[in-house]
Amino acid sequence: GGPRPRRPPGPKPEPVPTAAPCPQRCRRAGTLQSNFCSSDFVLTGTVKSVSRGPPQEPGWAVLSVLGVFKAQAALGLPQPAKGSSMRLQLPCRLCPSLKKGSSYVLMGRLGADGAALLPPDAFVVPYRPQQQQVLGNLSKRPCRGSP
Hints:
By secondary structure, the protein is mostly beta strands. Helices cover 10% and strands 29% of the residues. Keywords: Disulfide bond, Secreted.
């Protein structure tokens, strides 16, 4: 056999845009106290499922709510919210990192459509029972304008 015909190189596929750009490093900043007022909602919950869809679409986490400390009405949660399920949109596929069955303190944003969002810079920490009192105290204090 003779030499095989070579195909001309085709155009390189464009990278698929993600729902929201992810930072180089997923890192939370600050403390429970410093993030409480700047967040649209604050709650504690146990992750029931996490789905990271196709790259161009946001992922979702479904939580079983343990407690809500800010924006219960805006999230459309019943009173008491404990035990109810809630969906959180995850614009970044990489972070925050959530594990099924683990409990977290979650501080995030409300999207224009009212959906609860956990952006890459959301304050998310593993939940410990002693945080319940700290969060309860923070929820009683009025939040002033951003420092």
